[in-house]
Amino acid sequence: MYLRAVHAENSIKALFEFIKENPLGVLTTAIPSSSYPFLQSSHIPWVLDTYSDDPETPVKGLLRGHMARQNPHSKAMIESCANPSTGKLEQDVMILFTAQHHHYVTPKFYTETKPTTGKVVPTWNYAAVQVYGKATIYYDSAAAETSDYLQKQIQDLSQMCETSVMGHTGQEGNPGAWQVTDAPDRYIDIMKKNIIGIEVSIESIGGKFKMSQEMGQGDRQGVIEGFNNLGSDVGTNLAGLVKERGEMKDAEKDNK
């Protein structure tokens, strides 16, 4: 990920919060195989277990996920770590998380520079976090370790999504969360045999909020007004982020 200083988010704690708010990540691997593509990507919702936000800590946390056993991506990972039978991929993996809201930025938003010089071009505002690490694959459906991992994973992921995404907290008039135990045990056991577990140790993490911070205050205000004038949730959200990130940039400049 290209991290211009003006766009980079340097707080690992903030990057962890970003992942929790945007848990659907794209897992990408590069695995030599005669049977499957070298590069493969899959969208997976992740549970984040954090250890440390110290940049010097070698392993900063774990990302836990699962995917269908019949997915060719799963088969390539199983093939790679089954011989030798370590359960660990030799190659690093990458996971990319992208914020829900992003949008094209028209040069017409730049109310300061465009009228005076015309030296502006279109761009795209977005926020993203990229993680690199080592993966352990839980694929042996007969192993108690795999069963235990998958049981915890599906319980934790369901609880996270039911409460954080759906608001099913059982409080203040909200309905209660769906529980894995609401389904028959036999059914869950069958489902577990059709998935594999993926555990990624976070060894490197970086992220950016590309929100027009590089522009002057007049152009940033034009971007804020342009997004607000879209009259959409996306526009409103991005207008707020452009304002927030611009103020952070100005504050950093004042403190130097």
Automatic annotation (TrEMBL):
What highest taxon heads this organism's lineage? Answer: Eukaryota
**UniProt xrefs under SUPFAM superfamilies:** FMN-binding split barrel
What Pfam families does the entry give? FMN_bind_2
Q: Which residues form the signal peptide?
A: none
Q: Which InterPro entries match?
A: Split_barrel_FMN-bd (IPR012349), TR_PAI2-type (IPR007396)
PANTHER family according to UniProt: PROTEASE SYNTHASE AND SPORULATION PROTEIN PAI 2
**The protein's name:** Transcriptional regulator
